[in-house]
Amino acid sequence: MTDEIPPPPPGRSDDERPSEPGGDAISGAFEGADWDGGPGWMTRSSSADHARRADPDATAVRRVRVRKKAPKRRRRRYVFVVLGLAGLLLLAGFWLLYTGLAAKSQLETVRDEVHKLRAEIDSGNLDAARVTAKMISDHAAEAHDKTSGPIWSGAAALPFFGKPLESVRTLTQAVDSIATDALPSLVDASKSLDPKTLREPDGAVNLAPIAAAAPTLDRAAAVMQRSLDRIDRLPTSTWLGAVNSARSSALKQLNPLTKTIVSADIAADTVPAMLGIDGPKSYMVAFENEAELRGTGGLPGAFAIVKADHGKLSFTRFEPDDTLYNVKSGLDLGSDFDKNYNAADVTGDYRDANISPNFPYAARIWLAEWKVTTGQTLDGAMTLDPTALSYLLKVAGPASLPDGSQVTADNVVKLTQQRVYADFTAAQNDQRKQYLLDIAKSVSARLIVAHGDTTSLVKAAGKAAAQHRLLVWSSDPAVEARLSGASISGALSAEPGPSATVAINNAGGSKLDYYLHASTSWRALTCGSTRKVQVTITLTNDAPLGLPKYVLGFTGKPGYPTSPGDNRMVVAYYGTSGGQLTGVTLDGKASSAQSGLELGHPVFTVKLVVPRGGTSKIVLTMTEPGSGTPTIRTQPMVNPMTATATAAC
Description:
The structure is a single chain. Helices cover 46% and strands 20% of the residues. It is of the alpha+beta class. The strands form four sheets. Strands 13-12-16-10-9-18 form a six-stranded mixed beta sheet, with no helix packed on it. A hairpin with a 2-residue loop joins strand 2 (297-309) and strand 3. Helix 5 crosses helix 6 (163-192), helix 13 (386-396) packs antiparallel against helix 16 and helix 14 (412-423) runs antiparallel to helix 15 (429-448). The longest helix has 67 residues, at 57-123.
């Protein structure tokens, strides 16, 4: 018996027969699925099926419609991603703003506390200074912490946008380093370097604590200088003005503090050796007279020989300037020196040895002349001018002269540089020189004994050194190497970068510079690695009528001024290494200048006569390499020289 397949029900074709399990029903179901998630997405629609069979293009249309909807979904994903990224950037921006403002607040507190710390150290209140130093350290660390982390480091690395952020990070890091590594050392060193405890009753200086503090100050000075250099290398201009101002403010705050620490470090390294901690030392002290100008300040007049032995000073001799008159030193200071200064005269005359503003030249000449004259080898040389003496006498009090009169802070400048020429005629030259020697003796004796507040005396000496009115040179190479970077050395700068020094030498044998006023203006007119620079030197002669003949010098002699009070002089400008002179005018008219070279610096020299009651103006135009502005080294004068420096960018 055969099994027969029953016929299909009436009305159903073979094509409508149910599929076998696992057959085409699944593919059919998928084929007809509504992939848009409609209510029948897994339900077969016979009408749709018939439609597809009837019209094959219907499937194509359906598929095209599905493909059109997929980009919409991708666009939505992109929108979500973009919005997410924007949200993250917004949060990062808020975080940078919040932490930046917090760091700014901390740095402002540091700034105020640094002022307080300096005042406490100056007054000797070291217990309070330690507390303040700890507060500065805490606030600086907080500012550094606020500007650290991945958000700040990532943002700071961005081109253009990140520049001010990197500046902020560098500022906070530098200040934190100073507060943590330098200021506590400064406070500790200040305790052992308190001048009130260093000075003995007989005026001697206790050198042991100074020598012991040197390593601590070395470390503090190194930290300060590194931090200052890091800030100085930051861009001067970014897109965020507040950061530019913060950089400028930080430099203004840290520059004087760094100079203070570096000066203390140099003193700790050099003072013990110079004051004879290892045995006696002897020095020449020249008293300069700025009524007749020379490159380092004024004409060297009377001088003294001072001995230092384990901190105790004593003067062994006082001499007038003619003791070394026409004594040939025999020194050879090189062809540049010979060309600039006619070395045959300069190295053979004590009074002209300091024509160059580079004090080590003068010191070496003087010591060589002294050795030729006496056979004694000295260990160094110093200069003092009457203005420096006025600073010291203001603390130490007046000095008494043999005739019963007094030399005070108020009269020493006028007495030694103006009155002395009115009180003694040219025929009384010997009496005048003896009078100046008496002043030198009485003032020196007053200063080396324990008169006045020692802290104030140290500050007065520091003020004089900063103005180049107190200069020191040592024949000990190690000591001189440490001194050479400080203003007290009087050496021309050996550092790269912009440099500007003005030196005026009296060329008429007169004492008219007592009435001279001078100013110097330095301007960079263009930008770039090589730029155009203009230097203007303005000189005003306020000499009155009726001055003594001795004050007028060589007036009336051939080659010298004919009108009384006219001042003949030589003005030299020492510029940036690599500088080239492109033009000179004198009182608005084209002029010329002698060109030379000294220790790598170009030297441009102009000779002129400034009429009594008149003003002369020298304008030098140059091209110079470098960027930034120099600190103009001004010459010590009776009427202090003023100076300004500006750059176009």
